[in-house]
Amino acid sequence: xxxxxxxxxxxxxxxxxxxxxxxxxxxxxxxxxxxxxxxxxxxxxxxxxxxxxxxxxxxxxxxxxxxxxxxxxxxxxxxxxxxxxxxxxxxxxxxxxxxxxxxxxxxxxxxxxxxxxxxxxxxxxxxxxxxxxxxxxxxxxxxxxxxxxxxxxxxxxxxxxxxxxxxxxxxxxxxxxxxxxxxxxxxxxxxxxxxxxxxxx
Length: 201
Fold this sequence. Notes:
Elements: H1 11-18, H2 33-47, E1 51-55, H3 58-68, E2 77-80, H4 95-110, E3 115-119, H5 120-123, H6 130-135, H7 148-157, E4 161-162, E5 171-175, E6 178-181, E7 190-193
Parallel strand pairs: 1-3, 2-3, 4-5
Antiparallel strand pairs: 5-6, 6-7
InterPro entries: P-loop_NTPase, UvrB, UvrB_inter
Protein name: Transcription-repair coupling factor
Domain UvrB interaction: 139-195
């Protein structure tokens, strides 16, 4: 038997799965470490639907995400990291955290089965509606026409920071007809040259 099917057939586990429903509450105790991780994975595999896991702290969310990475496919596991309440809230959120949150929100908006891990601070964070989130997306394709001044304003409204040189996710720069942008959902920055009113990438 594969480890990620360890709980299948156990009456107590099957009872929890069958009782999962909106507005329902269940208390499961006695699980810790890898047993808890496999239990969560087992429920996810049985339900095959979006699942949000809330931990008490960001550190525990990080750890649970790392543990689940051994069981849940990469394209179905996402973390929504939010700094703990306190002095860190006054600091600028790290580009890495912003990127992870965007990926998690994209997945939630998509609605396909996935595990989203966050903390109490994350679940309390005020978020846009699904419609607002979708409207805030910016798609640029070859042949599109853009006014660079309007594009600059749009990127500011989306939370991107104007810099002389792009070095981290969430930054962009404009030099003449050239736009350098580091999307939060990309591993590398992108350069777009507007040599004409139409995009030449």
